[in-house]
Amino acid sequence: MTNTANIFLPTGSIPVVPPARTHASEPPFPWVGLITLSAAVFLSVTSEMLPTGLLPEMSGSLGVAQSQIGLLVSWFAFTVVLTSAPVAIWTRRFPRHGLIIVVLIIFAVSNILTAIAPTYEFVVAARVLGGVAHGLFWSVVGAYAAHLVPKAQIGRAVSITVAGGTLAFVFGVPVGTAGGHLLGWRLSFVVLAALMLVGAVLVWKFLPPVARHSTGASASADPTKSATKNRRDATVPAVVLICSITGITMIGHYSFYTYITPFLLDGLGVDPVLLAPLLFAYGVAGAVGLLLVGTVFGSRPSLGLVLGLAASAVSVSLLALFTATLPVAIAAFVLWGMVFGMLPPLMQTRMLHAASPHIRDTASAFYTTAFNAGIGGGALLGAVLIDSVGLETVPIVYVGVLVVALVLVIITDRMATRRSS
Known about the structure:
Elements: H1 2-7, H2 17-25, H3 31-49, H4 55-62, H5 66-90, H6 96-116, H7 120-148, H8 154-183, H9 185-206, H10 217-221, H11 223-232, H12 236-257, H13 260-267, H14 275-297, H15 301-321, H16 326-354, H17 360-388, H18 394-420
């Protein structure tokens, strides 16, 4: 609309009041609110993944195997999968703004309980509480950014919000890991809890409130017809397959990444002092991969997915084969971080391309469920492999899972090509 209006500006005889009114009616882009929301995402993802960097410390302190600490990620993720839908339904009438504040406070309580936990079982209970909050958090945040901006700016707003999750891997987990090594793992969770409370205050002050979730005009007009249309939508099989590929890929990834700390320390013989810098390098590489998605592969998600999965398989294979050659292994580790940083946004983009507008909300919910199921299932698979056949077999299994996901992506693309032709 803006470009069309500008075409007529030079005529002089045509009033330009309507375009001016259009610009005046558009609110300024809510940078402060979106950055605040992104900060909340940063804290949430850091809370979810922090145990992956503190496996040795937590294991020794609580008197359990490192695989048991890795299962804390599974407890967290499976809680998200099981509780996000019912809790979201139960809270659907509550103000979205207030829910985010409440969730951040619950996150703070969960991390404080983790920090003071006398036993492993107590930590599990604290993580389950955090998982409930995490599921509710994402059910609210998923659409919050879209409520803050006009339709044409939704993509930009969502990108800013999701960037907080990427920064959690770049800064949150590495800094939390370094703090845990220097001052003890319990203090890392205390600091994170304090930051959660600060985040709650920032959300209260700077994040604009929005209306409650809407189910959409068509659904509101006739829910029965809307549900029937969703069930008969021709894009449902493609969405299900893409979400299944997402779940499979995440199972493979988190079977290895959950236990990357003992692999780097014991498998590669990395000095513990270098652990946090390596995790930081992995996160920065992931941010580069995210940048590649936005500049190169965003409009070609299928090509990006194929290249990303293939490059991930190659980099993890090199990491497993060259454990005795540290420079090669570290280079492979950083490469893995970059190419895997491409995969989640590409899979979500591919899913949104495949889904019709009528089922995009439902498809996004299914995608989130598949993603978290993959995280929990991967951490569980890694624990089983470590206890049964050893840590060195985990990257081999991961490569096998990546090959399966790659084959499924190729099959999906060929099916889509045949349908379009």
